[in-house]
Specification:
- The protein is 38% helix and 22% strand.
- It is an alpha+beta fold.
- The strands form 2 sheets. It has a 6-stranded antiparallel sheet with strand order 1-7-8-4-3-5. The chain has a two-stranded antiparallel ribbon with strand order 2-6.
Length: 144
């Protein structure tokens, strides 16, 4: 499970060092793709294949919005393998999508990690915190 928040830097070649806690999960390869709220998602190869299988199984029942989502999600995807320094390259399309500058926030989101521009993450986190603090059982029914 991927947890926590880390603040690495994007180098001049568009590479980021994976947080030490995430390296085992991504060691044999990963997929980076467009994420929600202009973040960049990172999935282990295994998790991405499982997600893709679930998408394929639902294709027949999806409407246009579902097909549009899948097209955007998959067309931005790139398979990467960390180098010996545990760096991965974020493709230019995804750097642009996420507005990624030098300072990043890499967060664990359970089944995947998310890369955010650090300033964008801070703005998002600040705006989401009040709703999180005040959330009750109706937000995620039966969880707590």
């Amino acid at each position: 499970m991927l947890l926590g928040t880390f603040v690495p830097k994007l180098d001049e070649k568009g590479r980021v060092i994976l947080p030490a806690r995430f390296r085992d999960e991504f060691a044999s390869g990963l997929v980076v793709t467009r994420g929600q709220e202009r973040s960049v998602y990172l999935y282990s190869q295994r998790e991405f294949e499982s997600l893709h299988e679930r998408m394929k199984n639902q294709m027949a029942t999806l409407g246009k919005e579902g097909r549009d989502f899948i097209r955007m999600f998959l067309s931005g995807a790139s398979q990467e393998v960390p180098d010996k320094q545990s760096r991965i390259t974020i493709p230019p399309l995804l750097r642009k999508w996420g507005g990624l500058q030098r300072d990043l926030a890499v967060i664990g989101a359970g089944t995947h990690a998310e890369i955010w521009d650090a300033e964008t993450w801070q703005t998002y986190s600040d705006s989401a915190e009040p709703a999180f603090a005040d959330a009750d059982g109706e937000v995620i029914a039966g969880l707590f």
